[in-house]
Amino acid sequence: MSGTLVLRAGLAGLALAALATGLATPAEAAKVSHVKKAPFGTTVKGEKVQIYTLTNKNGLEARIATYGGTIVSLKTPDKAGKLANIVLGFDRIEPYQKGVPYFGALIGRYGNRLANGTIVIDGQTYKLPQNDGTNTLHGGPKGFDKVVWQAKPYEDKNGPGLKLTYVSADGEMGFPGALTVHVTYQLRNDNALSIDYEATTDKPTVANLTNHSYFNLTGDTDTPILDHLMTINADKITPVDKRLIPTGDLKDVTGTPFDFRKATAIGDRIGADDEQLKLAGGYDHNWVLNQPKPGEEILAAKVVEPKSGRTLEVRTVEPGVQFYAGNFLDGKPAGVGTVFKHRTGFCLETQHYPDSPNQPNFPSTELRPGQVYKTHTVFVFGVEK
Ligand code: BGC
User: Fold this and answer.
1) Atom of ligand 1 minimally distant from the CA of 244
2) Which residue CA neighbors atom 8 of ligand 1 most closely?
3) Could you give the number of structural domains in the chain?
4) Is 212 a catalytic residue?
5) CATH code of 347's domain
6) Burial class for 81, CB neighbours closer than 10 Å (0-12, 13-18, 19+)
7) What is the reported pTM?
C-alpha cells in the first residue's frame, strides 16, 4: 500500500471512529478512542437510546445506556485475569422499561424513601407521587432511572468517560425547581469507576442522587451473593419501621447482625432472629458511615468474593450507604428473557440518609438556588489471591 493509501485508510478509520463515538470530527473521535457508541433501542415514547462502551487500558469495560444513565454491564478481571460481567443487567432496553428494580440506574431526585410522599421546604408542603406503599421511592414512578440522558463521551489521562446531562422540569414528580443534573462516569485506568454528580436548581428543592448497581463479584449473575465477604465502615445504622422509613434514631451495630466492621459473609447472619432484618426481609438499611468530617472521602465498604478473588471498594463523600442484599429479587421474568433470582446481587447505594427532608436530626438534603450540589463515589476493582 502506498503512503497515501495508508493515510486514507487511517483517515477512514478515524471517520468511522467518529461515527461510532457520535463525535463531530475524526480528531475529536481520536481523542476518545476508548469510547464506542451504538444504538440500544427506542423508548415506548419513541426516544432513541444509545449505549456507550468504555474500555480502560487494562481491558476493563463498562457499558452505559442513556436510558436511566444505566450501567448495563461491567467487566472486571478475576484473580486469573479472566474478565467477566459483575453487575445485573440486560442487553436490550425492553426489560428496563418493564419496571425492573433500578438495575444499574441513576437514582434521583431523591434516592431512597420519603415518608407519606411528602416533603416540606420553607414551610411549604409538596405532595409527591407514591410508588412504594405510602412512600415515594427513588424519585417516584418516573425518576431519573426512566428518563433519557444527553451524553457526551470524553477521555483524559485517567481514562475514558461519559458525561450525562438531564434537566428535570420544575414540578417533575412533584419536586419544586428545575434541576439541572450532570453525572460523569469515568472508567479509570487504575481500575476504578468514578461517578461525579452535580446539580443546580432555580427554586429551593432537595437532592439525593445515587447509582443503583447490583453487584455479583462471582462473575456469574445466577449465583447468590451470600458468600461475599462484606465490610462496612460504620458503627451505626438508621433503624426503620415497617414502612422501611427511619425511626429517626441511630442504632449501634455492636452485637447485632449489622456489625460489618470486620469482614463477614453476607449470608452468615441474614436469617438471624432480628427485628430489623425481619422488617426488611434481610439487609436493606442505611449504614451511618464513620466519616471524620462531613464531606470527607472515606472507604465506606469493601467486598471480597473468595472464589474469584475479585474485590470491590466503595469510596464516597456521602454520609451513608444503603446496603441492599437483593431480598426482593424473586426470579420472576422481567417481561422478556433473563431472570434474576433471590439475592443474586447486592447494592451499595451511597447517599444521604433516607427520608432526610422529614428528619430534623439528619444531615440536610436541601439545595437552594446559587448552591451547587456536588458529590462523588468511586468503585475500585481489585483482586486478592
Ligand atoms: C431499596 C429496596 C428496594 C430496592 C429496589 C433499594 O434501594 O432499599 O427496598 O427494593 O431499592 O427497588
Assistant:
1) 9
2) 284
3) 1
4) yes
5) 2.70.98.10
6) exposed
7) 0.93
